[in-house]
Amino acid sequence: MSTLYEQLADALAQRIHEGNLQPGERLPSVRQACAQAQVSPATVFQAYDLLETRGLIEARPRSGFYVRRTPQALRQPALPATARRESTPVAISELVFEVLSSTRDKEVVPLGSAFPSPTLFPLERLARDGARAMRQLAPLALTTELTTGNARLREAVRARCVRHGLRVSAQEPVITNGAMEALNLSLQAVTQPGDVVAVEAPTFYAALQALERLHLRAVEVPTDPQLGVDPDALAEVLQRHHVAACWLMPNFQNPLGALMPHARKQAVMRTLQQAGTPVVEDDVYGELHHGSERPLPLKAFDTEGQVLYCSSFSKCLAPGYRVGWALPGRHSHAVQKLKMMSSLATSVPSQLALAEYLEEGGYDRHLRQLRKTLADSLHQLRTAVLKHFPKGTRVSRPAGGYFLWVQLPDGVDTLALHRQALAQGISTAPGALFSADQRFRSALRLNGGHPHDARVLAAVKVLGRLAGKT
């Protein structure tokens, strides 16, 4: 349930998007807004602060709040890609290894990293909770809960998923070593070597690595930077190819940041159900929305048990703990068997620390602060990119998560740009990482999950200058 200030902010945001409040127009004063909405001044200030964080309004000293005057560049969002019609083998791991090795150096500005800043998470409390829970653990639980995971954590995950609109039985959750294990096990459960898997264009490089490891072929589905996968294009792909499975990220897709609207998710799910195609759903960013409500995953519309839903705590609570989970639907038995044959178990101390933390409360409070911080950092990064990158640059406008998809003018090679920037202590994630045939050479993904301080701003200026010369 959204708070009063979030409801007020959403109502004003809708008026801005619909053009009822024009760029440069002054918003009602705090006193006027209180009278109109019948709320307290504190609620109005919180609502205006949220709108400012989203980049929709700006405060002017001794004058009030105004709808932000949108620069022309902001009216040029990232464009959807043209997907390849044919399936292709995948060979991306060597390039991924080369690029991601650069993010391990703490002296490098981590614009190419896949993780937010570790300073944003309650790691000390998690360590205390884990130590206390281990002291209280019955020794027998160390062996009886190996494959599916700790019972307390499984129930906490199940209860939270039910709150988010999912139908989950007590037996369904499988605790894994991060979301990547959940995703890999799920994909393996529904495919055989040589099968074709439908993926977004562009798509998360780890999805491509999973396909490469399992000797699968990729076929791309056109994906809009704002709206996600096109249901009609997905239907065409399913008709044209014998697709064994889909790998989709409907909420704040990596690398685009796209959020698939509710109606589009329903349409996608109808298409998948008609075809009988299982879908591996990656929802690791769903908790990091910048609005008032968590977006529903595809799993919420699944009536046949064909969605293998995967998520983790790595991006929103405990990076490095490597604790994720799968809700594999009718494929639960297959996923559990694969888990037993591969890693067998997930670290018990990590599971207990998270179970203790979730049971004690405070997770939602942490998430609210984290969302606000990430939304603010991402907005500042986007503003800096639009200011300092070459004319003609297009930038995505995510409503959640912490990634920007930046499309530079044709002719700019972002892999070459990455190597030049790395020589100056700046990492990026070039677009070639995000397709099976290393396309998107003029695009890159930037991480806005770190404080937008002077170091980050200087790095953006350097990238913009290099991009203008590449």
Automatic annotation (TrEMBL):
UniProt keyword Coiled coil present: no
GO MF annotation terms: DNA binding; DNA-binding transcription factor activity; pyridoxal phosphate binding; transaminase activity
What sequence ranges are listed for the domain HTH gntR-type? Answer: 2-70
User: Organism, per UniProt?
Assistant: Aquabacterium lacunae
State the PROSITE patterns in the record: HTH_GNTR
Q: Which family does it belong to?
A: In the C-terminal section; belongs to the class-I pyridoxal-phosphate-dependent aminotransferase family.
Specify the superkingdom. Bacteria
Q: Which Gene3D superfamilies match?
A: Aspartate Aminotransferase, domain 1, Type I PLP-dependent aspartate aminotransferase-like (Major domain), Winged helix-like DNA-binding domain superfamily/Winged helix DNA-binding domain
User: Pfam families under this entry?
Assistant: Aminotran_1_2, GntR
Keyword vocabulary terms for this entry: Aminotransferase, DNA-binding, Pyridoxal phosphate, Transcription, Transcription regulation, Transferase
Protein name in UniProt: PLP-dependent aminotransferase family protein
Please indicate if the UniProt record lists DNA-binding as a keyword.
yes
State the InterPro entries in the record.
Aminotransferase_I/II_large, HTH_trans_reg/aminotransferase, PyrdxlP-dep_Trfase, PyrdxlP-dep_Trfase_major, PyrdxlP-dep_Trfase_small, Tscrpt_reg_HTH_GntR, WH-like_DNA-bd_sf, WH_DNA-bd_sf
